[in-house]
């Protein structure tokens, strides 16, 4: 096996330790199919433009398709002596196609090849992540449907704030992932750009048709500038940012689940199939799945920072530093897909606990009493101050609070009790994006139409 395509330039071989250090064949394994796709399109373009003979092109195409078949069946092996995926494919083509193989690299460089391979990989990966996001959205909607009338406390600062429905909470999580979907779809516009024809950095003197290559690879357009195209990794940082955003949304959701399953909150129950126990405390039932998912946000942010740091201060055009970005991208894409898969399983196995408190008067509905007074003609701040003073003087006794409010506002105690009952409060929410039963039903209908038409 040859050591490297550039070896004739040098009088001494590359030091074996340095050779091993710079080898990227292991991580390039997942780029093989994209490299072959790029080669197939490139050869078809060379044939169309008359840069290689039809017989030579046909020989190259036959060899590439044979390698593709070998790869799909697990028979194609990469060799570290050949440094990277590009030279491994070229050498394999030469073995099959003979002298015609020497023409494969005409009018191209490893610089535009790797940029193309990564864009093809990023495009496929983006579609995979989109698919997993849609799966989790469907599961959130299913949770909402199963518990459409269940009322739970809504929190701010981890303190009870106002009553909401579980379906309203599920819809809130749905919306987070909907924004992630929008970001990914928009990112595809910048991912789906062809660098082919850029060659090393300055284009080529061969009469190529890089628009044809772009079309064959199903890119939307050709990169405008070869110098920029071979070094542009903005599409990777954007994808990693969106993955970080997804991870943060997952982490926040999982933090809620961890809190809501705790004895102090006791709002939801986790199925045994997604729970773990303790090696010493037999009574424990731990939400480890959601804790692990919560921690993955740190990895995602770290991966984004890693790539940004690699890119920081690089001179224009291709630099070998860019090689280090590949493994970070692959690692994060894998983790994002796995986290969404696991979260979908977890959400399906959450059971909400229905409580009697929703039919009892509660301080959590104090704002509704303020709003009622406003509707009776009192200025908001005056009503707020009145109710706030009653809360402060009640010693956390809800019935003392009711008596104080009745004395100050001249309202009947039974009316106050009704107004500050959580279920009644939710039932009377009428704003279109609020937690009222009707508003949530309509929002969930729109969400289902959105998801099932994707």
Description:
This protein has 454 residues and is mostly helical. The chain folds into three domains: 7-106, Fumarase C, Chain B, domain 1 (Orthogonal Bundle); 113-143 and 151-197 and 225-354, Fumarase C, Chain A, domain 2, CATH 1.20.200.10; 358-452. The chain has helices spanning 16-22, 25-28, 32-48, 54-72, 85-97, 110-146, 166-191, 210-216, 226-229, 234-260, 288-311, 323-348, 366-375, 380-392, 398-409, 413-419, 422-427, 437-452; strands at 151-156, 159-165, 193-194, 221-222, 268-270, 350-352. The chain has a two-stranded antiparallel ribbon. Strands 3-4 form a two-stranded parallel ribbon. It is elongated and about 100 Å long. The two termini are 49 Å apart. The model has no long low-confidence stretch (mean pLDDT 96). Keywords: Amino-acid biosynthesis, Arginine biosynthesis, Cytoplasm, Lyase. Residues 363-395 form the Argininosuccinate lyase C-terminal domain. Pfam families: ASL_C2 (PF14698), Lyase_1 (PF00206). It catalyses: 2-(N(omega)-L-arginino)succinate = fumarate + L-arginine. Its EC number is 4.3.2.1.
Give a brief description.
The longest helix has 37 residues. The two termini are 49 Å apart.
What is the fold's blueprint, element by element?
Layout: H1 16-22, H2 25-28, H3 32-48, H4 54-72, H5 85-97, H6 110-146, E1 151-156, E2 159-165, H7 166-191, E3 193-194, H8 210-216, E4 221-222, H9 226-229, H10 234-260, E5 268-270, H11 288-311, H12 323-348, E6 350-352, H13 366-375, H14 380-392, H15 398-409, H16 413-419, H17 422-427, H18 437-452
Parallel strand pairs: 3-4
Antiparallel strand pairs: 1-2, 5-6
Helix pairs in contact: 3-4, 3-6, 3-8, 4-5, 6-7, 6-12, 6-18, 7-10, 7-18, 10-11, 10-12, 11-12, 13-14, 14-15
């Amino acid at each position: 096996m040859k050591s490297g395509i550039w070896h004739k330039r040098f009088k001494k071989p590359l030091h074996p330790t340095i050779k091993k250090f710079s080898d990227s064949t292991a991580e390039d394994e997942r780029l093989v199919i994209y490299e072959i796709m790029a080669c197939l399109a490139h050869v078809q373009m060379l044939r169309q433009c008359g840069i290689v003979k039809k017989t030579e092109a046909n020989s190259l195409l036959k060899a590439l398709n044979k390698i593709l078949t070998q790869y799909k069946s697990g028979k194609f092996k990469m060799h570290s002596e050949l440094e990277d995926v590009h030279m491994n494919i070229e050498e394999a083509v030469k073995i099959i196609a003979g002298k015609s193989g020497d023409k494969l690299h005409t009018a191209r460089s490893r610089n535009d090849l790797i940029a193309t391979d990564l864009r093809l990989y990023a495009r496929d990966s983006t579609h995979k992540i989109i698919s997993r996001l849609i799966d989790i959205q469907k599961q959130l909607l299913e949770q909402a449907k199963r518990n459409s009338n269940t009322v739970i406390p809504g929190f701010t600062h981890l303190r009870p704030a106002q009553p909401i429905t579980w379906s309203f909470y599920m819809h809130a999580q749905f919306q987070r992932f909907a924004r992630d979907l929008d970001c990914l779809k928009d990112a595809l516009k910048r991912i789906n750009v062809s660098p082919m024809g850029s060659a090393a950095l300055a284009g080529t003197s061969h009469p190529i048709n890089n628009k044809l290559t772009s079309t064959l690879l199903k890119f939307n357009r050709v990169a405008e500038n070869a110098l920029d195209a071979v070094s542009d990794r903005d599409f990777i940082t954007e994808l990693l940012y969106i993955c970080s955003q997804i991870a943060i949304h997952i982490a926040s959701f999982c933090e809620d689940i961890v809190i809501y399953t705790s004895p102090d909150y006791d709002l939801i129950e986790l199925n045994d199939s997604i729970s773990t126990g303790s090696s010493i405390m037999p009574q424990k039932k731990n939400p480890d799945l959601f804790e692990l998912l919560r921690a993955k946000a740190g990895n995602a942010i770290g991966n984004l920072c890693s790539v940004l740091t690699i890119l920081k201060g690089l001179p224009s055009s291709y630099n070998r530093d860019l090689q280090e970005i590949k493994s970070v991208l692959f690692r994060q894409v894998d983790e994002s897909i796995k986290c969404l898969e696991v979260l979908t399983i977890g959400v399906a196995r959450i059971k909400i606990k229905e409580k009697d408190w929703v039919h009892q008067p509660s301080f959590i509905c104090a704002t509704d009493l303020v709003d009622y007074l406003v509707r009776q003609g009192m200025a908001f701040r005056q009503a707020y101050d009145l109710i706030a003073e009653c809360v402060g003087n009640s010693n956390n006794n809800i019935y003392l609070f009711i008596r104080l409010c009745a004395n100050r506002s001249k309202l009947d105690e039974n009316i106050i009790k009704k107004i500050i009952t959580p279920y009644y409060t939710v039932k009377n929410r009428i704003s279109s994006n609020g937690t009222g039963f009707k508003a949530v039903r309509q929002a969930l209908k729109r969400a289902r139409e959105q998801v099932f038409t994707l």
